[in-house]
């Protein structure tokens, strides 16, 4: 070892020696330099391996988080921030200008310790990603997803391979990069399922039409990648060693898979069943599962695979979602994904010298050309089949950008191949730089090009109760967050007065938060995985609405759906189903619950976010139902088929489109034999004397005329300002079981003088809705109604039922309702039905 090449620190001696092919680095480690005695004994903590390792983890974590905060306005991912943190801390910037920094914080001797810990974090993270995956979705992937995923894998492979072939004959290619070029072609053909679903979740479009199509297509592409990878490995082993050696390798992989499916998986499921429902997983069981995962990693290394290969397959074999998947994700995410994974990603940046990426004659040109043509092939291979399948042009471009995005799986592949000397430093740097540029541009472009809410506000025709005829079926989408929502929803549906001449079509959507899984679903209830714990809750909801349907045979038909999605994008499922089923109104439960003493017992901010998004984007009218029936007096008002008591409904009418929608709904309720409706119209003094005539006056006059002959009432409250409006509302606290009101009222109206949403707890309910919700001693429930805005669409002529004899007419209505329901119907995106010829 030449003396000029020797570098000494307190913990090691490093230098350059002559290797079999080229000069190589060598490190002499001092085994006793692990833990420091402290500065009081004259030790420098950075001369010992343990403090250095801890400092590396801390520095990597905070650097990546700080960069992520800076890049957040640009819609960049945490993976991009972690790579850039490594680049800044590596030889590109700090290592180039502060050499002593690299020697102290990132010595050669600390690389093995850091990479070992980072690899453990990565294999645990890959196990978590495997748990998130639900391979059953491959059965749901229609012809569009299969075509897009397959061509999106084959075309970049072919185009990049063709570019390599042409350049190899057009110009001299350095032999040092010849080995790595086929691997570059292979990695650019990937569209990893975990990466794509993570991107979709970050952009809140996981459960949109494009999101579902991208999810299915990435799963197909992943399957193609695995099949190709195993085939190429087997062929390479047969060429370099022997055919029998390749067969033995395949045999041991098969044995490994059999052991996972038929030994480890049943054992882990047996452990899960021993945990009582609703109770957390025992620590002993978790440790046993963790040891099995680490054992899979060891066995994967034994049979010649990467250590993360075993945990990933083990994760895929386990069921996603609660109870097992959610518990494992919750316990492992903090350490594996939160702490150790940033170190693993930062290592890729520490090994990258951006300034040396362009050196070396024509090699960088050839490498970069193949990389770029791979991305071009991925873009074109996704865009063209998507257009063929009927995807709108801009959405097809969005899908192509999504499929071009790279992430944690690709970075891990680069690192693995670099450690195996398949990629040199230059190729590794070019792959990483191109990935950062393409993925960094794709994310904001996807956010700009694709907005699911545009579909809900397209001019499909306004759907409001006001514009519906009494003889046309009322189509209601009710959302259920938990079982406690069911009684108040059923109460409202009973009051909606379903008859054989005016039937109700009810779509029940059970909302379940996506936990421990990467794929969002929106399916009829019976398609939901029955092994999931949320299936039990859904069964209870289905049972209650099925009983309601049986009590109203011929006038009510119910169809049940389950949506499993992140709360941030759950409104996409609600709005998509409302649009697909042409509903008239969506009923969502309020995010607060009240205790027996009248105080707020529980509040769910995530549900509030869902409600706000639905209010802003729904393709029909929206009703927010607030349950205040269970109060300090212990009274719970209910309207059932077996009840003989009357149900008192009050409508507070101030004017405006939303109040008119509430009036139209309440008029339907008023025809129920046990509903007593009271319309309270608030009038300002000047308005009372002016007596201006408009559509509101015509509807009120019609109701007032009919109320004299029926059991309903009409009242007028003459007020001067918002104070008197508030006093009048407080005086009605004991008069009603349900109070209905529109959401929006003109802030310039004299009736609202002094009232503003600036002081409201829930401004999404409007001024009056928020006031009704916060009345301390109120014992009535509240329904806040919003009519679909005028600009959301136009109003085509309504289809009316032909004039038939009464008996035939009721049969016609019943058959019309039943024909639009099918228990086997699945929610399928519009352009994903091309394989069905629709």
Account of the protein in words:
- Helices cover 52% and strands 12% of the residues.
- It starts with 6 loop residues before the first strand and ends in a 19-residue tail after the last helix.
- The protein is built from 30 helices and 16 strands.
- Helix 1 crosses helix 2 (78-89), helix 9 (181-188) packs parallel to helix 16 and helix 16 runs parallel beside helix 19 (425-449).
- Residues 631-636 and 792-838 have low confidence and may be disordered.
- The strands form three sheets. The protein has an eleven-stranded mixed β-sheet, with helices on both faces. Strands 1-2-3 form a three-stranded antiparallel β-sheet, with no helix packed on it.
- By secondary structure, it is α/β, with parallel strands linked by helices.
- It folds into four domains: 1-33, no CATH class; 48-241 and 307-449, Na+/H+ antiporter like fold (Up-down Bundle); 458-620 and 812-833, 3-Layer(aba) Sandwich (Rossmann fold); 622-787, 3-Layer(aba) Sandwich (Rossmann fold), CATH 3.40.50.620.
Question: Which key features would you list for this structure?
Answer:
838 residues; alpha/beta; Na+/H+ antiporter like fold; 11-stranded mixed beta sheet; 3-stranded antiparallel beta sheet; 12% strand; disordered C terminus
């Amino acid at each position: 070892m030449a003396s000029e090449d020797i570098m000494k620190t307190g913990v090691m001696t490093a230098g350059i020696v002559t290797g079999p092919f080229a000069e190589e680095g060598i490190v002499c480690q001092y085994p006793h330099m692990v833990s420091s005695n402290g500065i009081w004994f004259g030790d420098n903590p950075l001369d010992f391996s343990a403090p250095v390792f801890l400092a590396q983890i801390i520095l990597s974590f905070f650097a990546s988080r700080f960069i992520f905060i800076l890049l957040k306005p640009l819609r960049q991912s945490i993976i991009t921030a972690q790579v850039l943190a490594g680049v800044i801390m590596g030889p590109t910037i700090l290592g180039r200008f502060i050499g002593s920094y690299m020697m102290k914080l990132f010595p050669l001797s600390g690389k093995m310790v850091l990479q070992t810990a980072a690899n453990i974090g990565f294999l645990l993270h890959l196990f978590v990603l495997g748990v998130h995956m639900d391979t059953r979705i491959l059965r749901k992937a229609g012809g569009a997803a299969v075509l897009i995923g397959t061509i999106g894998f084959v075309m970049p492979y072919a185009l990049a391979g063709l570019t390599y072939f042409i350049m190899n004959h057009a110009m001299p290619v350095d032999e040092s990069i010849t080995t790595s070029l086929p691997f570059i072609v292979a990695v650019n053909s990937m569209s990893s399922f975990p990466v794509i679903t993570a991107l979709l979740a970050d952009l809140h479009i996981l459960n949109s039409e494009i999101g579902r199509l991208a999810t299915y297509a990435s799963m197909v592409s992943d399957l193609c990648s695995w099949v190709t990878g195993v085939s190429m490995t087997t062929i390479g082993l047969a060429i370099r060693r022997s055919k029998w050696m390749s067969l033995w390798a395949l045999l041991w992989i098969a044995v490994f898979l059999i052991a996972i499916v038929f030994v480890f998986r049943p054992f882990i499921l047996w452990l899960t069943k021993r945990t009582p429902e609703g109770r957390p997983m025992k620590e002993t069981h978790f440790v046993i599962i963790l040891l099995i995962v680490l054992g899979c990693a060891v066995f994967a290394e034994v049979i010649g695979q990467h250590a993360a290969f075993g945990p990933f397959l083990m994760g895929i074999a386990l069921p996603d979602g609660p109870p097992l998947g959610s518990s494992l994700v919750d316990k492992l995410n903090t350490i594996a994904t939160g702490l150790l994974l940033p170190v693993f990603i930062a290592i890729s940046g520490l090994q990258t010298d951006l300034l040396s990426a362009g050196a070396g004659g024509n090699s960088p040109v050839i490498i970069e050309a193949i990389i770029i043509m791979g991305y071009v092939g991925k873009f074109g291979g996704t865009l063209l089949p998507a257009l063929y399948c009927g995807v709108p042009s801009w959405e097809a471009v969005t899908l192509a950008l999504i499929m071009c995005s790279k992430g944690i799986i690709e970075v891990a592949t680069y690192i693995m191949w670099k450690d195996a000397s398949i990629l040199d430093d230059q190729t590794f740097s070019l792959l990483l730089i191109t990935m950062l540029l393409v993925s960094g541009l794709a994310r904001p472009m996807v956010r700009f090009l694709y907005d699911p809410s545009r579909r809900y506000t397209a001019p499909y025709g306004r759907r409001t109760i006001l514009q519906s005829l009494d003889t046309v079926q009322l189509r209601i989408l009710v959302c259920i967050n938990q079982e406690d929502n069911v009684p108040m929803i059923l109460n409202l549906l009973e009051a909606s007065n379903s008859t054989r001449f005016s039937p109700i079509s009810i779509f029940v959507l059970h909302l379940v938060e996506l936990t421990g899984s990467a794929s969002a679903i929106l399916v009829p209830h019976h398609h939901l995985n029955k092994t999931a714990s949320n299936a039990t809750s859904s069964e209870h909801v289905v049972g209650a609405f099925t009983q309601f349907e049986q009590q109203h045979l011929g006038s009510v038909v119910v169809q049940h759906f389950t949506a499993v999605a992140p709360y941030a994008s759950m409104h996409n499922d609600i709005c998509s189903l409302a649009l697909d089923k042409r509903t008239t109104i969506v009923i969502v439960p309020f995010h607060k619950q009240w205790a027996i003493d009248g105080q707020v017992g529980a509040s769910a901010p995530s549900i509030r976010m869902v409600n706000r998004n639905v209010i802003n984007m729904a393709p029909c009218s929206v009703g927010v139902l607030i349950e205040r029936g269970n109060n300090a007096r212990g009274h719970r008002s209910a309207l059932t088929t077996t009840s003989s008591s009357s149900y008192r409904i009050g409508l507070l009418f101030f004017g405006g489109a939303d109040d008119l929608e509430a009036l139209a709904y309440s008029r339907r309720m008023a025809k129920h034999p046990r509903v007593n409706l009271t319309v309270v119209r608030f009038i300002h003094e000047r308005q009372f004397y002016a007596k201006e005539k408009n559509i509101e006056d015509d509807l009120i006059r019609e109701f007032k005329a009919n109320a004299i002959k029926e059991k309903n009432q009409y009242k007028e409250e003459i007020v001067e300002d918002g104070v008197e409006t508030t006093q009048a509302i407080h005086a009605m606290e004991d008069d009603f079981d349900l109070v209905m009101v529109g959401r929006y009222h003109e802030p310039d109206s004299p009736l609202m003088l002094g009232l503003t949403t600036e002081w409201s707890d829930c401004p999404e309910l409007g001024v009056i809705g928020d006031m009704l919700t916060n009345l301390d001693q109120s014992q009535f429930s509240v329904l806040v109604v919003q009519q679909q805005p005028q600009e959301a669409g136009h109003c085509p002529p309504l289809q009316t039922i032909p004039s038939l004899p009464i008996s035939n007419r009721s049969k016609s209505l019943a058959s019309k309702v039943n024909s639009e329901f099918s228990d086997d119907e699945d929610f399928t995106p519009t352009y994903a039905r091309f394989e069905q010829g629709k």
